[in-house]
Amino acid sequence: MFENLSDKLDRAFKVLKGQGTITEINVAETMKEIRKALLDADVNYKTAKSFTDDVKQKALGANVLTAVSPGQLLTKLMNDELAALMGGTTSELTLTASPTVILIAGLNGAGKTTFTGKLANFLKTQKNKKPLLVADDIYRPAAIDQLEVLGEQIGVPVYTNRESKDPIAIAKEGIAHAKQNGNNIVIIDTAGRLAIDEAMMVEIEQVKAAVNPHEILFVVDSMTGQDAVNTAKVFNDRLDFTGVVLTKLDGDTRGGAALSIKSVVNKPIKFIGTGEKMEAIDVFHPDRMASRILG
Ligand code: GDP
C-alpha cells in the first residue's frame, strides 16, 4: 500500500538524514522534495503546499536544527502533520437513532455494494447491531442480486422491491420494514451514478430529502487518485455527506486520495476497504495511515 508515495517520501527524507548537520536550507530543500512527492501522489497543490509550509515552520520552531536526532524529530513531526491532514482522530459513525439510516453513495464500480455488505457485517459482528440492507438500484437487477448474495453470506436480511421503479418509495418501504422487524440499522445501497449525470444526482438528493439519513457515506475507489478528490467534491456539494469510504486500498494504489480528500471536502474518512471479502473493512485511523505512508 502506498509504495509510491512512501518510496518518494523516503527518498526525500534520505536527503535530509544523509546530511551531517541540518541547516535551514536543507530543511527547506527536503520540504520541496516532499512537496513534489505529495504532488506526484495526486495530493492537490494547495494541500501539499500548506502541509510542507506547516511542517517547515514547526520543524524550525521545534529546534530540529539543534536536536540530537533531527531526522527522527522531523519524521515525528511529519507523522503528526500527515495524521492531522487526514483528520487527526478516528471519526466514528453516529449510531444512536433506532433505526439509524445510512445512505451509501458513489460512482459505479467504486465498491458501494461490496462496502454495504461489509458495513452490515461489521455492525452486526463488532457493534452487536441488527442491520437491514435495502437494494435501491432500480436500474440494474444484477445489483439487487449481488446484494442478496452478500446478505445471505453474512446472515443479514435484504429488502427488495423488484416491481418498483421508484427509489424514494423503496427507501421508505425499507425503513418501514426495518421498524416492523426490529432492525436498528438500515443501510441503503443506491444506484451507481456518474457525477455528471444530472438526473441521477437529483434522484439521490430526493432520496436523501425523503429519508433524512443519519449518515451519508460517499464510497470512492482510492486507485482513481485526483479523480477521487474531484468526485468527492461534486458529491459533497450535492449531498453534504457525513463521511468517506476509501476502497481498494489493498491494491497498488497511491496515497493521494487519503491525503487530500479530508482537506478538500472537510469530511472525515470513516472506513477503508482492503479487499473483496466481507471482512476486508477497517475503521480509518489517521495516525496508522500516516505511519504506513511514511514507512
Ligand atoms: P459498485 O458498483 O460501486 O457497487 O461496486 P462493487 O461493490 O460491485 O465493486 C466493484 C468491484 O470492486 C468488485 O469486483 C468488488 O469485488 C471490487 N472491490 C470492492 N471493494 C474492494 C476493495 O476494497 N478491494 C478490492 N481489491 N476490490 C474491491
Automatic annotation (TrEMBL):
Residues 268-281 form the SRP54-type proteins GTP-binding domain. Keywords: Cytoplasm, GTP-binding, Hydrolase, Nucleotide-binding, Ribonucleoprotein, RNA-binding, Signal recognition particle. It is an enzyme of class 3 (hydrolase). The keyword GTP-binding applies. GTP binds at residues 106-113, 189-193, 247-250. The keyword Cell membrane does not apply. It catalyses: GTP + H2O = GDP + phosphate + H(+). It is found in: Cytoplasm. Its EC number is 3.6.5.4. Belongs to the GTP-binding SRP family. SRP54 subfamily. Composed of three domains: the N-terminal N domain, which is responsible for interactions with the ribosome, the central G domain, which binds GTP, and the C-terminal M domain, which binds the RNA and the signal sequence of the RNC. Involved in targeting and insertion of nascent membrane proteins into the cytoplasmic membrane. Binds to the hydrophobic signal sequence of the ribosome-nascent chain (RNC) as it emerges from the ribosomes. The SRP-RNC complex is then targeted to the cytoplasmic membrane where it interacts with the SRP receptor FtsY. Part of the signal recognition particle protein translocation system, which is composed of SRP and FtsY. This is Signal recognition particle protein. The gene is ffh. The chain holds residues 1 to 295 of 441 of the full protein.
